[in-house]
Amino acid sequence: MYSQGLIGADGTTDEDEAFLQHFQSRIDAEQKIEPNDAMPEGYRRTLIRQISQHAHSEIVGMLPEGNWISRAPTLRRKAALLAKVQDEGGHGLYLYAAAETLGISREEMTEQLLTGAAKYSSIFNYPTPTWADIGAIGWLVDGAAIMNQIPLCRCSFGPYARAMIRICKEESFHQRQGYEIMLTLCSGTPEQKQLAQDSLDRWWWPSLMMFGPHDSDSTHSDQSMAWKIKRFSNDELRQKFIDATVPQAEFLGIKMPDPDLEWSEKRGSYDHGPIDWDEFWRVVKGGGKCSKDRISDRQAAWDNGAWVREAALAYADKVRARQATAAPTPVAAE
Ligand code: BYC
Questions:
Q1: pLDDT truncated to tens, each residue of the chain (334 aa)?
Q2: CB of 122 shorter than 6 A to ligand 1
Q3: pTM for this structure?
Q4: Ligand 1 centroid from CA 50, angstroms
């Protein structure tokens, strides 16, 4: 049933019916697929696309928060934010390493990011004008990330699933540090509480957009769910996030910027107002407030790091040359 040109049967590989069925039966049996296993070309490409975009998001995601490290209000806040931003860098590295097992290099992935061929999460194209934005990012952006990423711990591709386990543990610390910033602001002066409210107003809708387009406009979901890369649809995860987050805003005593938000007894979930999909696609296509800066910052980081890459390669060459000329180790007498 999956052979109708669906599973990467793109004419460039010889994926016959039997091969595709055997692969799908492994997926259906919840077996992990490992890098050296045979896999349809479409599965490999889908994973490279998703994992590399995820890695880029972690790395670009360091920028809006990194912007506040030198201006954090206390030493404790500075230390926590520094650790969080470092964690995001680590997440990017685990994910690039997982994608590399599928046959793409770090250089190729970076080039795809810098030329715009690969996307990164829309959320990181918004500015962080106040300290409260750091609270809102931890609470909402990391909260949305956890909702999306916990199911990825059960992704059918082993290296991605294993990377996600550690990432999710760290994201949960990130979410709590963000919520604690919001809690502190909301228990402070009216001005501080207003800062928290303004940041919620700025970040709520973009956080909902992180989950991707409506299911009806999601081009990859059906196939990714059949392959058990994704376990839930974009709308399902978005709804879970809304249901979990509304009570947290109530506890803070601030209001979601959605007049249509209402608990539905019938659905056992919150109904919400319309998401501005025009804004989503504009931002995804590079029209966000910070889109140009994000890419030029990454380009500068790549260019400025060239000497490190060159030095590492020169050192590796030296080690290889030394090993090649070293005298062979004598064989021990019996
Ligand atoms: N932004 O068919 P769909 C973090 C694209 S990092 C931009 O539903 P899919 C953090 C999508 O790529 C958070 N583009 O796609 C870091 C596709 O275009 P392409 C990142 C988006 O893949 C630092 C098209 O729209 N998390 O948490 O089935 C600090 C159609 O979409 C977005 C991940 O990357 C978007 N929001 O589902 C703090 C998680 N949404 O590729 C926090 C892993 C969709 O055909 N990724 N598009 O050109 C996923 O779970 C899935 O890739 C998505 C999209 C749910 C994002």
A1: 333 334 444 445 668 999 999 999 999 999 999 999 999 999 999 999 999 999 999 999 999 999 999 999 999 999 999 999 999 999 999 999 999 999 999 999 999 999 999 999 999 999 999 999 999 999 999 999 999 999 999 999 999 999 999 999 999 999 999 999 999 999 999 999 999 999 999 999 999 999 999 999 999 999 999 999 999 999 999 999 999 999 999 999 999 999 999 999 999 999 999 999 999 999 999 999 999 999 999 999 999 999 999 999 999 999 999 999 986 666 665 5
A2: yes
A3: 0.92
A4: 7
Q: Is the CB of 213 under 6 A from ligand 1?
A: yes
* Inter-residue contact 280 to 271 (CB < 8 Å): no
Q: Find out whether 4 and 12 touch, Cβ atoms under 8 Å.
A: no
Confirm or reject: Cβ of 242 under 6 Å from ligand 1.
Answer: no
Burial of 260 (0-12, 13-18, 19+ CB in 10 A): exposed
Q: Which of 72, 305, 311, 36 is nearest to 158 (CA)?
A: 36
Q: Which of 150, 203, 220, 235 to mutate to test the pocket of ligand 1 (most atoms within 8 A of CB)?
A: 220
Closest C-alpha residue for ligand 1 atom 33: 54
Q: Whose CA is nearest to atom 40 of ligand 1?
A: 212
Cα distance between residue 276 and residue 11, in whole Å: 38
Is ligand 1 within 6 A of the CB of residue 100? Answer: no
